[in-house]
Amino acid sequence: MLQVLLGTLRTSSRRYVATTLAIVLGVAFATVTLVLSGTLASSVRERVAGDVGGYAAVVVPGEGFGGNAVPAGVVDAVRRLPGVAAVVPVASTAVQVHGAAMAWTDARTWRPTPAVRLVSGAAPTTAEQVVVSTSVAARADLRPGRPLEITDSTGAPRRLTVSGVAVPGDGSPGTLWGTGAALATWSGTSDLTQVLVTAAPGQDGGAVLVAVTAAVARVGHGADVPAAEVRSGAEEADRLTTQALQGSDALTMFLLAFAAVALFVSVLVIGNTFAILVAARRRQVALLRCVGATRGQVLRSVVAESLVVGVAGSLLGVGLGVALAAVVSRVVGGSGPLPLQSLSVPAIAVGLPLLAGTLVTVLAALLPARRATRVTPLSALRPDDTATGTSPVRAGRVRVAVAVLLVVVGVAALAYGVRTASILVALPGGVLSALGLLLGAVVLVPPAVRLLGAVPRRVGGVSGDLAVENAVRNPARAAAAASALVVGVTLITMMSVAASSAQAGVLDELDAHFPVDAQVSAAPGALTPTVVDQVARTDGVAATVTLSTASLVLGRGEPQVVTGVPTTVGTVLRSAATTPYAVVRPGLVVVDASLAPALGLTEGARTTLGALPVTVHLVKEPPAPVLAAASDLERAGAQPRTGTLLLRLTDADTPGPTIDRLGRALAGVDGVDVGGAAPQRAELQQVVQVVLLVVTGLLLVAVAIALVGVGNTLALSVLERQRESALLRALGLTRGQLRGSLALEAALLAGVAVVVGVAAGIGYGWAGAQALLGAQLDVPLVVPWGRLLLVALVALAAGVAAAWLPSRRAARVHPALALAQE
């Protein structure tokens, strides 16, 4: 049997190509994920440990005590210790950068580290100099030597000079860097976020750590200051590495889930391939049984065959995965949100995919191997292939019963999960129902093929008839070939529908809570008519409305800041029906419901705004605590002034350029801030597009494996039908008609997979989005038909392309040669 196995592997090598390719793709996917995960961890560790890991001690705020700063006396206390060579204090604060969209950004003490690299200019040496990140430099058009205006955390405007531009590495929150004196001025405090201690040459790091710990404890003892913690450099490096890698484990599991999908599709392809290989060798197996081979020997021979193929394919997959990870690591390098500096190949990145690929191949081949042992020698040696080991009717009934049970239970759990907005219930339900569909595919695919085949029968003539009949001749084989593609199309559709539906729900929620695209606020009196006119004339601003503010007594309470809303507010509202702005009218005051008890107000109560009688309307979380008509502020005797600008943008879905132009137009305005829904909407849409792009790319691997299975099924089926094809050629069928029938057969299988996959994916996608987000917001069903149509066309075209080689091979066989007796 060993000689038979070696001979089979040698003579049937071409038949293993598609199977090996399916294994290689699935294993390579898992290998790339694990290698990149290991590389990311080691790269972040190198960055962090390369700086912090070299210090003998690191003093940080005491997390266990709720502190947010290192006690001010720590630096002097530690600097006096024997064995301490240097002490580096580090502070941080938040500032607003004029001309860079006016967003709050982090500022830190300048300290060159592996995570912060100067690309131009020099480090700051005075409190009036600053280093800016590349992103801030690009937005505000800055370079070394240019002036920069900021508003520090105390509200004071400051004019600085850019001394350099730096690239912040992963894990570094700084977008501005200044000297220690500058940070103390900007923050208005001497609080420190970190104190780094270097041991003197020849001093024991452990002894210095103990001394620093004792000194810090003495500084904090009995004093009303935040507690501090002391760690060694290595311990702090471990902590910083863990923080920097936060979420990477979830990302790895996310990618491994797609690798598992690819391996699952590989199981379908491999199982189908071995089933066809075993069926094609029935007479060979029967002959072996006749000369004394036992069932166990036949079983072990097929399993050993799958083991050899699995190991070979897995080794190739691991090699390909490591090579692809090396390419990605070299391309990404140290830039981007995921630093990948030096390739790291942990043992698990080799062992786990190798074991998984081999095990998957052997398990997929077990059922065909068992089927081979059930063939009796005499029945298999008959000229026809009608003998089977079990009753097909009984097996079909059992399969259908189990499939129906899984679908019913799965759909019920899925519906309950959607109703209760519980993803933990909906997810198992979706998996069970999907397994039921795959199990029942042998019953569903043939009728679906016949239904879709009505058009090819009418327009394809003989080729169309042959394609339909050949596609349904072996339901199990057709189901296996189509099921692999169904999984890929379903997942792509599901993710597209889920992302689009969730995006629509979140955007509706944004429109309800943030009814305007952009909102500009500033310090009192800063929004002068000239500034308002500059904003209105900014390219990308479609309409503006000015909200005024005044201090008025509401009822018998204290004076309140009242926001005046003009009657033209509707020109900038995106969702007027759900915003309190649209409710405001003369004689009606909108008050925050949480503020009403302190003011003694109730819904519908009559009170006064200054001396003006008004009616109270309570609203939960309005845009401002008190809203009134702008005309009522003047009638109440107030002297309102401009407080906020509401903007409607022409490019609300991609507002980045307009927001940047607004930042430049508002340069020099005190306390200015640009907010609203447009930046959040744009960020959400960008995230959704990136996620969809990544997920679609990952799932295309599963689709590629499925198409390999379609091509493999057709190729092996061509070998089985050589004599039949030759007879058809002898009866007048042309080579073009034969190739056309195989192409139509592949198109029918792909078409069934697309129809079933799209239908199932739409249902699963909406149900998943509803179960995940239904408790927080309403999730409408949004089907991106354009994207799904593209997926369908690509799948159909790829299915037809998969039939190209098998159809050419079938057309090359000469009728007389193929009809010869074996």
Textual characterization of the structure:
By secondary structure, the protein is α+β, with helices and mostly antiparallel strands. Helix content is 57%, strand content 15%. The protein folds into four domains: 1-51 and 271-380, no CATH class; 52-241, no CATH class; 441-514 and 676-821, no CATH class; 516-674, no CATH class. It has a nine-stranded mixed sheet. The protein has a six-stranded mixed β-barrel with strand order 3-4-9-6-8-7. Strand 7 (147-151) and strand 8 (157-168) form a beta hairpin. Helix 2 (17-49) packs across helix 7. It comes from Lapillicoccus jejuensis. It is found in: Cell membrane. GO terms for molecular function: transmembrane transporter activity. Its main location: membrane.
Task: Please give the structural blueprint.
Layout: H1 2-11, H2 17-49, E1 57-61, H3 74-79, E2 84-90, E3 92-97, E4 104-109, E5 116-121, E6 129-133, H4 134-140, E7 147-151, E8 157-168, E9 176-178, H5 180-187, E10 194-199, H6 205-220, E11 228-231, H7 233-244, H8 248-280, H9 282-290, H10 295-332, H11 347-373, H12 377-380, H13 392-420, H14 423-439, H15 441-452, H16 454-459, H17 461-473, H18 475-513, E12 518-521, H19 529-536, E13 541-553, E14 559-565, E15 588-592, H20 596-599, E16 606-609, E17 612-619, E18 626-629, H21 630-635, E19 641-649, H22 656-665, E20 673-675, H23 677-720, H24 722-730, H25 735-773, H26 785-802, H27 804-812, H28 815-818
Parallel strand pairs: 4-9, 6-8, 14-18, 15-17
Antiparallel strand pairs: 1-10, 1-11, 2-10, 3-4, 3-7, 5-8, 6-9, 7-8, 12-19, 12-20, 13-14, 13-19, 15-18, 16-17
